[in-house]
C-alpha cells in the first residue's frame, strides 16, 4: 500500500509540473517563462506583422545623481489654448471641446483597435513627439477573448464628429510585459505607440513631467478625451483635484467615462499621468515616472 501511495504522489507531482510548464498566460510569440522577471521588460509588438519580442525597460541613463528630466510641449502655431479651472464635486462637470483643432486638443486622439476575434476597442491617446503617442495598455487587449490578437490600430487626432485633423496607424506597440501576461494593474497599464506618420508636426504634442507627492496633489489636473457615453467622436474635458498618490498611481475625482482610458492628465500642456480606470467613488491614473521618460529619451522617441 505504501509503495502504491508513493508512486501515485510521484505521478501527480509529474503531471502538475508538466501542466504548469506548458501554461501560456497570453497570446503571442513570446511565451511565459517563469525564469524571467518580466517587471524589467516591455513587450514590443510589430503591428504590421504581429511579431513580438522583449525589450529591457532599464535606461542607460544610470547616473544616480542625474537631475530630473522633463520634456517640452510643442504647439505648431504657438497659440496655446488656456485651460479653465473648475471644481468637480458631485455632478458631471465635463464640457465639450468645440474646436479640437486648437492645441492642446489637437494632440489628443480617438484611437480604434480591431482584434482577430472581430471585436473593437475604443480609447484615447495623446502625442508626445512627432510620431509617438501614449495611452492605456488595456485598450490593446480584447475584452472578449484573451487569445485574440490586435489586427489594426488607428489614431484620429483632433477628431470632432466626422472632422479629423490628422490620421495615422500604429506601427509598433510597447506594453509592460507584466501587463501582457498578468494584466489588471494600474502600475503596468500604459502603452507606447510608434505611429506610421509624423502627425505631431501638424497636431503638436504634450510635454512629460514629474512632481513630488505634495506638489502633485496641489496641482489641478485636466483630463480630455473621447468618452463612450457621449456622441461618438466628440471630445470632452474636465478639471479637478488629485486625492491620493503613490509611486505609480494617481487617484482622482476628475469626471471621466469609459473611452477616456489613455487620456492625458495634464497641467499647462505637461502630462503627469495617464488616465486608466474609473469607479463609482474614485478614478485612477498611471503616474508619469522618470523611468518612463528616460527610456523614451534613450530610444529617441522623444527629445529632452
Helix content: 10-25%
Q: Which assembly state applies to the chains in this document? A: single chain
| Separation of the first and last Cα atoms | 72 Å
CATH architecture of the domain at 95-298: Beta Barrel
Structure summary, number of beta strands: 17
- Regions with pLDDT < 50 over 5+ consecutive residues? 4-28, 80-90
Summarize the structure.
With 304 residues, this protein is α+β, with helices and mostly antiparallel strands.
Walkthrough of the structure:
The protein is 14% helix and 31% strand. Strands 3, 10, 11, 12, 13, 14, 15, 16 and 17 form a nine-stranded mixed beta sheet that branches. A six-stranded antiparallel β-barrel has the order 4-5-6-9-8-7. It is an alpha+beta fold and 304 residues long. The termini are far apart. Mean pLDDT is 82; it is low at 4-28 and 80-90. The protein has a domain at 95-298: Thrombin, subunit H (Beta Barrel), CATH 2.40.10.120.
Quickly list its features:
single chain; 304 residues; Thrombin, subunit H; six-stranded antiparallel beta barrel
Secondary structure: elements and pairs:
Layout: H1 2-21, E1 41-46, E2 52-56, E3 95-96, E4 108-115, E5 120-127, E6 132-135, E7 150-157, E8 166-176, H2 177-181, E9 191-195, H3 200-203, E10 207-208, H4 213-218, E11 221-225, E12 236-240, E13 242-245, E14 249-252, E15 264-267, E16 270-277, E17 283-287, H5 290-298
Parallel strand pairs: 10-16
Antiparallel strand pairs: 1-2, 1-8, 3-12, 4-5, 4-7, 5-6, 6-9, 7-8, 8-9, 11-12, 11-15, 13-14, 14-17, 15-16, 16-17
